[in-house]
Amino acid sequence: MNEKSFLAAYNRADYTSPLLSVDAVLFTYHDGLIKVLLVHRSSHPDKGKWALPGGFVDEALDRNLDDTIHRKLQEKTGVGTAYLDQLGSFGGSKRDKRGWSVTVVYTAMVAHQACASLVDTVDDVRWVALEELDSLKLAFDHAQILAAARQRLRQKALYSIIPAYTLNERFTLPELQAVHEVILEKPLQKKSFRRRIELAELLIDTGEKQSEGGRPASLYRLKPDASTYTFVRNLES
Amino acid sequence: MNEKSFLAAYNRADYTSPLLSVDAVLFTYHDGLIKVLLVHRSSHPDKGKWALPGGFVDEALDRNLDDTIHRKLQEKTGVGTAYLDQLGSFGGSKRDKRGWSVTVVYTAMVAHQACASLVDTVDDVRWVALEELDSLKLAFDHAQILAAARQRLRQKALYSIIPAYTLNERFTLPELQAVHEVILEKPLQKKSFRRRIELAELLIDTGEKQSEGGRPASLYRLKPDASTYTFVRNLES
DNA sequence: GCAATAGTGTCTCTCAGACAATATTGG
DNA sequence: CCAATATTGTCTGAGAGACACTATTGC
Q1: Helix, strand, or coil here: B182?
Q2: Are B21 and B54 in contact (CB under 8 A)?
């Protein structure tokens, strides 16, 4: 039998495959806290609990998994995400009551301001501070997924500038340092922090300043390839 | 409607879900080269091409994705893998001719010796040196997946001792250094390499020696938690 | 002894940690 | 000037790179 006739005879419905979904842990920084976007489930299963934004592949619309998660996040936030990267896949027979299921999970980051307008107007989507997560009922295995995402975020804060994507496009160095400090849950040395970023040449000085009650801070913008840079030496963890 | 009646009414066959497979890039070190295990496809689609070892979830046997890949690798090599970790998932409408599909890919490592007996006796499974990959016809998007796995392996060589899992349980420091050098495609300083590993206390000295034509080298064994250790400072890339 | 391989001594260099000092704004 | 915040100077220490040196084996 050649491949053509094999494919003609092949019918996907003859094989059961685990249920596949795509979810994201979308991080932002607001009011001195790292927050994640959660969606209130209005349908079964796990109705009434909070879940990560996500959904199913639309075979007509999506060419690949990145398309799926982009589409889903756009629906919930109204904007494209500044940063997106795959965290991993979680699969098993017990995680979803509908049966054996797999979810491909992304971590994403966006400026709080960018999607404030949409998120604030709907009541089934909201930003939840990491500290507040323990007090919420989470759907499926999303508590476990969030724990893995936090771990990944922490690593990124140690060896990259990626947490900057939780800020507005233009941001100050003290703001960026504050983000890293919140993620790492420890204070950092101003001098060390600035020095490593300056040396890596990851930022563009916009020339503008932003005043915060004292000396105004310079506003920077990320260089396009800043997300791919890794420091050879990590911050102490 | 409550959840119970929702689940009773729910029928997975009513929804089409992408085809889901689980594959692995299994690395080993042999004859001064890093090699990966490939399987010759005997059935459609992509019959006759070489593919990563893997397969489909068995909903009866597998509790989770790790179970699936463990089972598949055990079938092909006859042994459990020394190291296993998820690389990522690759999904899209074009990668498999049967339709929209997703594969969850793991990277794994095993000692060449451990599975030599089985692999050498079958002719549809073989070790392929990384350098030789370009000359083989690879199934699906497996060339792209292998590129991502090589990239990941390279990173691990820079910040961890994980490449040690491609060696026998007991190995010498010059052997380990050779593995890292092959992966990074550059020579390393003996002194630096030994110093960082000694400082990290990742190895147990077995007290035994292994002779290689000159002064015999000490044989070491990995400490149980060696896979979770990351150096704060990377090797230069 | 010699060749071959394993392992050490020690200097330099880079970059993070610490923390004090200086700069620039608004009142 | 003072309070508040941003930014810099500079010393210390950890650990990688370089490379010459010593050690232990078989012949």
Answers
A1: helix
A2: yes
Residues A53/A24, Cβ–Cβ less than 8 Å: yes
Query: Nearest Cα to B56, choosing from A12, A8, A18, A136?
Result: A18
Instruction: Please name the amino acid found at residue B191.
Output: K
Class of domain B169-228: mainly alpha
Provide residues of A within 8 Å CB-CB of chain B. 1, 3, 6-7, 10, 12-13, 15-20, 44-47, 56-57, 59, 62-65, 86, 88-94, 97-100, 102, 104, 230, 232-234, 236-237
B201 CA to D10 C1' distance (Å): 34
Q: How far is the CA of A114 from the C1' of D7 (A)?
A: 29
**Token pair of A48 as six digits:** 């009434």
How many whole angstroms separate alpha carbon B148 and alpha carbon B114? 25
Mean pLDDT of A93-118: 94
What is the Cα–Cα distance from B41 to B121, expressed in whole angstroms? 17
Domain B16-157 adopts which CATH fold?
Nucleoside Triphosphate Pyrophosphohydrolase (3.90.79)
A220 — phi, psi (to 5°)? -120, 165
- Two tokens, residue A154: 């922490």
Please write the tens of the pLDDT for every residue from B105-161. Answer: 999 999 999 988 787 788 899 999 999 999 999 999 999 999 999 999 999 999 999
- Choose, out of A57, A152, A228, the residue to mutate when testing the contact with B (most B CBs < 10 Å): A57
Segments of chain B assigned to CATH 3.90.79.10: 16-157
Which of A17, A67, A237 should be substituted to probe chain B, the one whose Cβ sees the most B Cβ atoms within 10 Å?
A17
